[in-house]
Design goal:
The protein is about 70% helix and about 0% strand. It is built from five helices and no strands.
Length: about 80
């Protein structure tokens, strides 16, 4: 994986975690709501997986947000 791709995945993972914590739900709860494995949520939050678009949509739906929020609010590698 290229450095630029890793930065994007790290930023996506931070946004997923930020929105999840703002909702006060665990990785396990988010996984259940999105129909995913709890481990996969952790992998995404730590940038260890590159999720398909449909997975991003399912996570956003579970978080009750528009999928674009997971991308538009990303701080592209500035942290």
């Amino acid at each position: 994986m290229r450095d630029s791709e890793k930065k994007i995945l790290l930023a996506l993972g931070r946004e997923i975690r930020r929105h999840r914590k703002a909702k006060g739900i665990s990785q396990e709860d988010l996984a259940a709501l999105a129909g995913l494995n709890r481990n996969y949520i952790g992998f995404m939050e730590r940038a260890e997986r590159s999720p398909r678009a449909i997975v991003i949509f399912r996570v956003a739906q579970a978080l009750e947000i528009h999928p674009s929020l997971l991308l538009s609010e990303m701080s592209w590698g500035k942290r």
